[in-house]
């Protein structure tokens, strides 16, 4: 069970002598190994299943996680004017609906990287927003991101709508591409059958060589295109940063306009993602390696979560799904709050989303430079009342716009990840359990008292424990155990999962 049950807390001080069966006094002279053997012997005579036995070795089964290897994969950028099917082509190459697609121009705004593979070769695919000349406002920022993607890639897929033919905007993009020395592949999209193939011939006029007729919607011609791309793609990227020791992945979450993209840009030291006063600017998760206080991280900027997913529609709906998917790939989540506004139900749903995912958690209170004394008093009260269930999460007060206290994120992230990675040896954990239940046994329920027979940590990331018991433990008592675990071992910034396996005595024959 997680730490989110709503039943009342177990209050050890409120238990009367008549409500418990008092255990024997805890003997501190007994070693952890001796106590482990004694706790293990508690299971003798109980019905155990095959998966139980896998956990009951000398030290229990432990599921670890290997760090990714360092490598610099070649980068392929997909560019073109708005609504020619760039994101649809991304999804076709990836073989899944990863990029947000909607039948209106301008859905994609940032340059978004995805790991891709074709015939055993791995590369990075970069989706971009539509490029337009003389764009203003947010469209100018989108176009700038597309131009950066061209500079930071090893090959370019220039997507054109074959049904429309070459346009003035397409010709401006060609001028941009000719200034690079990268191989460029002209992709004639929306050629759904052989009858439409002659329409692609008009694209020879762009001067980029033979167009590749494809249908991103149906997959027609995409395999031939990828074969041609891989023949020109280098084995190792000339522009991509190598993965330096597998930097830890940090998801930046929050409701729209709390400063998630500003935080990523300030950490990266460049305008990596589009920032605009328009709420909901980001729609696709954006990965970026950043260095803060000498430590390299992979930051993932995500779309703002507006409201419940089933009430959303269009691009916002798919953006929320991809935000949840990005969280699953992350190791720690930084949930941003706007301190100039009250903590809302929306903020609390985002925190709950992180708890449900089992990721480490850091709470970042943004726009601290705009906080006045009156609002500060109300904010502390809101944190105490609304965020009491995550009081164990590190807090950072900062300003993403100015970069103030940005470096304080590093110790908070390191603390949360260390806790998330923690493993308690089975002997020490059983010594902890034995001491706890002898001091505060479970209350009687219906004349019976559930006993904890044995316990072990079966996994980290997050720390997950299994207790073998003779009956159901009250939710309040489970939270009491989790609280004592935090008092003993810390676990600052990490959720704790406590599962039960109720076992009955073996029938005599």
TrEMBL record:
<dbReference type="InterPro" id="IPR032859">
    <property type="entry name" value="KH_dom-like"/>
</dbReference>
<dbReference type="GO" id="GO:0043022">
    <property type="term" value="F:ribosome binding"/>
</dbReference>
<feature type="binding site">
    <location>
        <begin position="366"/>
        <end position="369"/>
    </location>
    <ligand>
        <name>GTP 2</name>
    </ligand>
</feature>
<dbReference type="InterPro" id="IPR003593">
    <property type="entry name" value="AAA+_ATPase"/>
</dbReference>
<dbReference type="GO" id="GO:0005525">
    <property type="term" value="F:GTP binding"/>
</dbReference>
<feature type="compositionally biased region" description="Acidic residues">
    <location>
        <begin position="1"/>
        <end position="21"/>
    </location>
</feature>
<feature type="binding site">
    <location>
        <begin position="254"/>
        <end position="261"/>
    </location>
    <ligand>
        <name>GTP 2</name>
    </ligand>
</feature>
<keyword id="KW-0690">Ribosome biogenesis</keyword>
<comment type="function">
    <text>GTPase that plays an essential role in the late steps of ribosome biogenesis.</text>
</comment>
<dbReference type="Pfam" id="PF14714">
    <property type="entry name" value="KH_dom-like"/>
</dbReference>
<protein>
    <recommendedName>
        <fullName>GTPase Der</fullName>
    </recommendedName>
</protein>
<dbReference type="GO" id="GO:0042254">
    <property type="term" value="P:ribosome biogenesis"/>
</dbReference>
<keyword id="KW-0677">Repeat</keyword>
<dbReference type="Pfam" id="PF01926">
    <property type="entry name" value="MMR_HSR1"/>
</dbReference>
<feature type="domain" description="EngA-type G">
    <location>
        <begin position="248"/>
        <end position="421"/>
    </location>
</feature>
<keyword id="KW-0547">Nucleotide-binding</keyword>
<keyword id="KW-0342">GTP-binding</keyword>
<dbReference type="InterPro" id="IPR016484">
    <property type="entry name" value="GTPase_Der"/>
</dbReference>
<feature type="region of interest" description="Disordered">
    <location>
        <begin position="1"/>
        <end position="26"/>
    </location>
</feature>
<dbReference type="InterPro" id="IPR006073">
    <property type="entry name" value="GTP-bd"/>
</dbReference>
<dbReference type="InterPro" id="IPR005225">
    <property type="entry name" value="Small_GTP-bd"/>
</dbReference>
<feature type="binding site">
    <location>
        <begin position="80"/>
        <end position="87"/>
    </location>
    <ligand>
        <name>GTP 1</name>
    </ligand>
</feature>
<feature type="binding site">
    <location>
        <begin position="301"/>
        <end position="305"/>
    </location>
    <ligand>
        <name>GTP 2</name>
    </ligand>
</feature>
<feature type="binding site">
    <location>
        <begin position="127"/>
        <end position="131"/>
    </location>
    <ligand>
        <name>GTP 1</name>
    </ligand>
</feature>
<feature type="binding site">
    <location>
        <begin position="189"/>
        <end position="192"/>
    </location>
    <ligand>
        <name>GTP 1</name>
    </ligand>
</feature>
<feature type="domain" description="EngA-type G">
    <location>
        <begin position="74"/>
        <end position="237"/>
    </location>
</feature>
<comment type="subunit">
    <text>Associates with the 50S ribosomal subunit.</text>
</comment>
<comment type="similarity">
    <text>Belongs to the TRAFAC class TrmE-Era-EngA-EngB-Septin-like GTPase superfamily. EngA (Der) GTPase family.</text>
</comment>
<dbReference type="InterPro" id="IPR031166">
    <property type="entry name" value="G_ENGA"/>
</dbReference>
């Amino acid at each position: 069970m997680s730490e989110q049950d709503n039943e009342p807390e177990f209050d050890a001080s409120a238990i009367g002598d008549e409500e418990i069966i008092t255990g024997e006094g805890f003997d501190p002279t007994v070693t952890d190994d001796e106590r482990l053997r004694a706790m293990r012997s508690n299971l003798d005579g109980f019905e155990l299943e095959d998966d139980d036995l896998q956990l009951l070795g000398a030290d229990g089964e432990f599921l670890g996680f290997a760090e990714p290897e360092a490598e610099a994969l070649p980068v392929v950028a997909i560019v073109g004017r708005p609504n020619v099917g760039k994101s649809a082509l991304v999804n076709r190459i990836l073989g899944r609906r990863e990029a947000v697609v909607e039948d209106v121009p301008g859905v994609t705004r940032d340059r978004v990287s995805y790991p891709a593979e074709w015939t055993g070769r791995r590369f990075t695919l970069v989706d971009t927003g539509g490029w337009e000349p003389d764009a203003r406002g947010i469209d100018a920022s989108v176009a700038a991101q597309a131009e950066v993607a061209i500079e930071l890639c090893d090959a370019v897929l220039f997507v054109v709508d074959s049904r429309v033919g070459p346009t003035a905007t397409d010709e401006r993009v060609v001028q941009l591409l000719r200034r690079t020395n990268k191989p460029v592949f002209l992709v004639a999209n929306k050629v759904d059958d052989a009858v439409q193939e002659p329409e692609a011939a008009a694209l020879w006029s762009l001067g980029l060589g033979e167009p590749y007729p494809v249908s991103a919607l149906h997959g027609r011609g995409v395999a031939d295109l990828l074969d041609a791309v891989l023949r020109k793609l280098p084995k190792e990227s000339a522009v991509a940063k190598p993965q330096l020791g597998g930097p830890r992945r940090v998801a930046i979450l929050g409701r729209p306009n709390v400063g998630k993209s500003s935080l990523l840009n300030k950490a990266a030291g460049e305008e990596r993602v589009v920032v605009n006063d328009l709420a909901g600017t980001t729609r696709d998760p954006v990965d970026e390696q950043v260095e803060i206080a000498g430590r390299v991280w992979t930051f993932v900027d995500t779309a703002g979560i507006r409201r419940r997913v089933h009430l959303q529609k269009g691009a916002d709906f798919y953006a929320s799904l991809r935000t949840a998917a990005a969280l699953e790939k992350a190791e720690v989540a930084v949930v941003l709050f706007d301190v100039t506004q009250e903590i809302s139900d929306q903020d609390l749903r985002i925190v709950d989303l992180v708890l449900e995912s089992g990721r480490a958690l850091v709470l970042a209170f943004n726009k601290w430079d705009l906080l006045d004394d009156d609002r500060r008093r109300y904010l502390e009260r809101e944190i105490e009342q609304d965020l009491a269930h995550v009081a164990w999460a590190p807090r950072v007060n900062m300003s993403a716009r100015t970069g103030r206290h940005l470096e304080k994120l590093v110790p908070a992230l390191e603390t949360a990840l260390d806790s998330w990675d923690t493993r308690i040896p089975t002997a020490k954990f059983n010594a902890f359990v034995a001491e706890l239940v002898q001091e505060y046994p479970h209350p009687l329920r219906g004349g019976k008292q559930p006993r904890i027979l044995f316990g072990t940590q079966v996994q980290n990331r997050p720390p997950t424990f299994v207790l073998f018991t003779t009956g159901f433990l009250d939710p309040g008592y489970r939270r009491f155990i989790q609280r004592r675990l935090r008092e003993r071992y810390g676990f600052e910034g990490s959720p704790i999962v406590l599962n039960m396996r109720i076992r009955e005595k073996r029938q005599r024959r």
